[in-house]
Amino acid sequence: MEKKYTFEDYLNVVRALRAPGGCPWDSKQTHESLRPYMVEEAYEVLDGIRILKQTGQADNLCEELGDVLLQVLLHSVIAEEEGYFQIEDVIDGGCRKMIRRHPHVFPEESGQKALERPDWDEIKRREKGYDSPSDEILSIPLELPSLLRMQKVYRKKKKIFGETHTLRESADNIRDMLSAIEASDGGNDGERIAAILEEVCAIAEERGVNAEQSLADGAQKILDKYRQTVYK
To answer: Which stretch of 20-24, 111-115, 210-214 has the lowest confidence by average pLDDT?
Structure first.
C-alpha cells in the first residue's frame, strides 16, 4: 500500500526545506514575508468550503487545509530557529485553551465547575488579563478584513457599553451621509462612505448577518451573472 505520511513527517519536511541545502525560497522566509500567504491560503480554504457545498467534492478543501497547515508549520519552525517556541508549544497552548474555555466538557481538566452554559467572554477576559472593558474592545485585531472588523467593533460596543443603532437610526444616518456626499465637492467623501459602511455593519449585526460574507456573496452573484451572459 502507498505510504501514508504523518504530521511528524510533514514537520520534518518543513525542517528539511529550511535547513542548509534545502529550498532557497523556504529557507529565506520570515514571519513578515509569509504574512500574505497565510491570508491567501485561508481564503482558499473558504473557496474549498464553497466547492464542497456546491459539488459535494471535498478534495480541494482537504488540499487547502494542508496548505494552511504548511503555514502553521513554517511559522513554528521559524520560531523554533529563533528560540521563541516550537510546534509542540503551539499544540499544547491550543489544547489548554480549548479545555479552559469548555469547562462544561472538561470539568476536571479545566479545574472549573461543570457549567451548562459557561461565560466564554468572562473566561477570555481572565485569559487576556483585561483590566477594563476598553482593553477588550481595543484588542480587536488590526488585520481583520475591514467589514468584519467594523462589525466586531459594533458588537463589542453594544455588549460592553450598550451602544446600539436601531434600524431607523442607521437608515437616517445613511440618508444624511448620502445627502452630504451629493452636496459635497468630494473632500470628505471617504469619511462619509466609512460612516455609511459603519451603519451597514450595524444593520448586519442587528439582523444576525455577516456583512463580510454578504458582500462576498453579492460580488460572486454579479460575477456568476456576468459569466452566464458572456459564455451562454
So the answer is: 111-115
**What amino acid occupies position 161?**
F
| Stated pTM of the model | 0.70
* SS3 state at 85: coil
Alpha-carbon distance of 14 to 51, in angstroms, equals: 28
Residue with cell 444616518: 173
Per-residue pLDDT tens for 31-69?
999 998 998 999 899 899 989 999 999 999 999 999 999
3-class secondary structure for 44-78?
HHHHHHHHHHHHCCCHHHHHHHHHHHHHHHHHHHH
Tell me the three cell numbers of residue 21.
541545502
* Burial state string for 137-176 with b = 16 or more CB within 10 A and e = fewer than 16: beeeeeeeeebbbbbbbbebbeeeeeeebeeeebeebbee
Number of H helices, E strands in the chain: 12, 0
The CATH number assigned to the domain with range 132-232 reads: 1.10.287
Q: Which residues of 32-51 are buried (b: 16+ CB within 10 A; e: fewer)?
A: eebeeebeebeebbeebeeb
